[in-house]
Amino acid sequence: DSVFAVGTTVKGNNASEWLYVRTGSTAVAQYDCVAVAIAGTAAPVTHALARAGLTIGVAQNAISANQFGWVAINGHSLTVNTLAAEAVGVSLYTTDTAGALADATASASAALIMGLTLVATASGTTASNAACILQNPVVRKTIVDA
Asked: Which of 7, 11, 34, 114 could pair with 42 as two cysteines, CB 3.0-4.6 Å apart?
């Protein structure tokens, strides 16, 4: 049982706002970008989930499958998963790796996430993470490679 009702929001420090969610059969890793359905079920964001018009947030802690937890939907001093080296202020897109974002579209299905901005460079050539700011992140459009 849950202490809070799924869908509850609370304000936190660093201008943060948090949404109480439950995972389904898929766990959420620490720093995953997540998509939250209207019923409050969160899953690592995928191309399809992003384009479905769901709430976008970032998990600051891992949440096991079929468990409850909080995801950030606004604020600064947060961290998000990225695929590799990503620069400050670049546009971020969904990737073929659920929960991770990148500055390039590896798939014609990729979706642009607006309102989620890196404030530190993600380093490395493999999966990484970087400091970010969330400002009511939403999917603005589907990207189609030319």
From this structure: 34
CA–CA distance, 100 with 122 (Å, rounded to integer): 12
Answer whether 56's CB lies under 8 Å from 111's CB.
no
The phi, psi pair for 48, rounded to 5°, reads -65, -45
* CB contact at 8 A, 9 and 23: no
Q: 21 has which bridge partners?
A: 69
Tokens at 65, concatenated: 């499958």
- Reported pTM: 0.91
Residue-wise pLDDT for 37-58, tens only, equals: 999 999 999 999 998 889 999 9
Q: Per-residue confidence at 146, pLDDT binned at 50, 70, 90?
A: very low
Burial of 73 (0-12, 13-18, 19+ CB in 10 A): buried
3-state secondary structure of 30: coil
Task: Give the CA-trace dihedral at 84, 85, 89, 90, to 10 degrees.
Answer: -60
Distance CA 68, CA 82 (A): 24
Are the CB atoms for 51 and 139 separated by under 8 Å? yes
